[in-house]
Amino acid sequence: MQIDKFSRTPIYEQVIDGIEREILTGELKPNSPVASVRALSVQFSVNPNTLQKAYTELERRGIIYTAVGKGCFIAKDAHSIISQKLTA
User: Fold this and answer.
1) For residue 72, what is the DSSP state?
2) Whole-model pTM?
3) Which of 55, 21, 20 is nearest to 35 (CA)?
4) Which of 44, 45, 49, 76 is most buried, by the most CB atoms less than 10 A from its CB?
5) Tens digit of pLDDT for each residue in 48-81?
6) Which DSSP category does 32 fall into?
């Protein structure tokens, strides 16, 4: 995933797009873990609140789910949800 801090697209939307792209290409499979907010925050030097906003939106859309104490994971229907959104 790439983050362009100079883009007009907000960082949280870039994160959402990046995760959705990785799901569509098969890099992220159902029930596979998603990097933690803290890890991505360090990797991209981005405020953790920005990343949490992206994860919250992905969870609202049904793309990821949270297992308390274990982290976030790709939902089993994520690929079809994203595909439906692209064809709509």
Assistant:
1) E
2) 0.92
3) 55
4) 44
5) 999 999 999 999 999 999 999 999 999 999 999 9
6) P
